[in-house]
């Protein structure tokens, strides 16, 4: 049986973006979790942005809040709501 990809709803993506914005000033683990969620939800919508979120989530030494803010702004600008 073939699994069907489910498009995330706008509400899910908006929630993930909100969580990412909130995580900018939090601990590294919170930033990584927020970026991971964003990467998963973007996977079926925009592979480039999904990849950027995933890369940033696992950045060494850590994903910086400013980089997270830039990515969130890119997602908001490039994806229709």
Class by SSE composition: mainly alpha
Overall helicity = 55-70%
Indicate the mean pLDDT.
Answer: 89
Strand proportion, as a percent range, falls in under 5%
Number of helices: 4
Descriptive overview:
This protein has about 80 residues and is mainly α. It has one domain (about 10-80). It contains four helices and no strands. The protein has helices at about 10-25, 30-40, 45-55, 65-80. Helix 1 (about 10-25) runs antiparallel to helix 4, helix 2 packs antiparallel against helix 3 and helix 3 (about 45-55) runs antiparallel to helix 4 (about 65-80). It is globular, with a radius of gyration of 12 Å.
Fold blueprint:
Blueprint: H1 10-23, H2 28-42, H3 47-57, H4 65-78
Helix pairs in contact: 1-2, 1-4, 2-3, 3-4
Concise account of the structure shown:
With 81 residues, this protein is mostly helical. The chain has helices at 10-23, 28-42, 47-57, 65-78.
């Amino acid at each position: 049986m073939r699994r069907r990809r489910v498009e995330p709803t706008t509400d899910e993506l908006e929630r993930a973006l909100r969580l990412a914005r909130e995580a900018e000033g939090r601990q590294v683990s919170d930033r990584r979790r927020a970026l991971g969620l964003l990467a998963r939800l973007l996977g079926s919508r925009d592979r480039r942005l999904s990849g950027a979120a995933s890369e940033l989530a696992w950045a060494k030494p850590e994903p910086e809040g400013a980089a997270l803010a830039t990515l969130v702004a890119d997602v908001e600008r490039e994806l229709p709501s």
